[in-house]
Amino acid sequence: MNVCVVGTGYVGLVTGACFAEFGVKVVCADNNEQKIAALERGEIPIYEPGLDQLVARNESAGRLSFTTDTGQAIRDALVVFIAVGTPPREDGSTDLSYVEAVAREIGRAMDGYKVVVTKSTVPVGTSAKVKGWIEDELSRAGKRARFSVASNPEFLREGAAIQDFMRPDRVVIGAEDEEALAILKDLYRPLYLISAPFVVTNIPTAELTKYAANAFLATKISFINEIANLCERIDADVHDLARGIGLDGRIGQKFLHPGPGYGGSCFPKDTSSAAHFARELGSPLEIIEAVIRVNDRQRARMVEKISETLGGRVAGKSIGVLGLSFKPETDDLRDAPSVDILRALLDRGAKVQAYDPAAMAEFEKILPQVRLVANEYEACEGADALVIMTEWNQFRMLDLERVKAGLRSPVVVDLRNVYEPVAMREAGFTYSCVGR
């Protein structure tokens, strides 16, 4: 079976490389000539543990290739995955222009039966639009070709994407007809062999499942952040509280970690998109609307926490920062809390020096005023406070004496609750964290 994946961003590249690992012949197509040339040289445009080896191994074996000739890649494939970006608009809606462009290209290139699969995260009803766009191009060209449209949302966590693909919690397939379903089941047959759960449903349900999953997880994050803020008022410990409720099997312990709020390429975009299309349908998602507001407020609350720990003002203060990416094991800065928080500190007159293991090259383009340093200890040098922004593993066991020696004053603001408050205070630090 030949597969074409259109789009070589995070989802497209991981999807293509993992299918190739199954033994399928995969062509990843993109109209960005520089990106394709870099991939052919073995240069991976994103930071994802293990992806470079996976791509190299399957490219060497002849199962994975890259091209800018999207039309030919479509013609050669039985299954075509649409994995292009779906960025948010200012009003929270989803920009489907890239999806439309690919769908129309599929229509122009189609010369035989294809299963067209939406992998990008898209609002409910997008697959129907994809079908319409393809049919429109076929009509314009005076062609007749049979095709199926399906939805197969991705549930890949940045930093653990390969594991998530190879051993998924579930695979969701929304299909219109038995032929498309049979082909997709055959494509995913290696996962059947390890008894991965499959959810087979109609297309609108599959499309909504991705939004519902991310919105629910975002809700847990905003919920525990509000509880954490309350804990600070009443001298309670949010970690003990989270354990106390998380041990209830109906609730679960994951995503009950307080901090500066959710970020990344999925949760902010997906919650806004879900809220927008639900409003348009006259069925507003009031809980999700509140989740978004809470997340926005949490970032502002973190700015105030840093300021309060420094005596109420940050003007003229030097602040060291550990971690810039929205989460560990990724270089992704899309909607990262660090961007909003550090921009606010700079606007208030602070000087910022920061270190991140993977995200500094991209961060420099966003906030060039931040001085980027070579390691975690250099971020401490001469700073009036150290802020832990992202909980990379290498920040979990810092040499505290070295940290204290570098800081101008022993102040640590831990926005990820990496350290224990009592231990930090006994070590001589003025220590502030979230909800403890």
List keywords for this structure.
436 residues, alpha/beta, Rossmann fold, eight-stranded mixed beta sheet, six-stranded parallel beta sheet, 45% helix
Beta-strand content: 5-15%
Total tally of structural domains: 2
Q: How many strands appear in the DSSP assignment?
A: 14
CATH architecture classification name of the largest domain: 3-Layer(aba) Sandwich
**CATH homologous superfamily designation of the largest domain:** NAD(P)-binding Rossmann-like Domain
- Strand order within the widest beta sheet: 3-2-1-4-5-6-7-8
Q: Pairing-aware structural class of the strands and helices?
A: alpha/beta
Helix count, per DSSP? 17
- Distance, first to last CA: 55 Å
**Helical fraction:** 40-55%
Overall form: elongated
**CATH class division of the largest domain:** Alpha Beta
